[in-house]
Amino acid sequence: MTRYFRSLLIGAAMALAATPALAHSTVKNTVPASGSILPASPGEITINFNEAARITSIILIAPGQPERKLDVMPSGSSTSFMVHDPKLATGRNEIKWKALSKDGHPIEGSIIIVIKPGAVPSSPPPAKNHDHH
Ligand SMILES: [Cu+2]
Fold first, then answer.
1. What does pTM read for this prediction?
2. What spacing in Å lies between the alpha carbon of 23 and ligand 1's midpoint?
């Protein structure tokens, strides 16, 4: 009986050890989507995560300009973040963000938005997001 019990416990412990670690938060989508070509800077950029995360840094790399820190709301934990009036420049803009996943892992990614005066707005087909551990 004791022996049977012990093997049961060992089995349970092994099953626990085999359970994969919780996945970190990922970006569900952004608006505009990364890869979008727009005629003018969007009024806002929204980043939606699949579960709560906390953005720790977000910067804009625009052509011919020094890196600029963007203000993102909210400052705490959320599934949805917004940058109001990012003032993107003509050309290729990269918005690089870093965040803390709900599981505590740092995650990061970037959104590329091209501003092309006169362009018909277009966004790429849904693609895998770029964030990773
Ligand atoms: Cu993770």
1. 0.77
2. 5
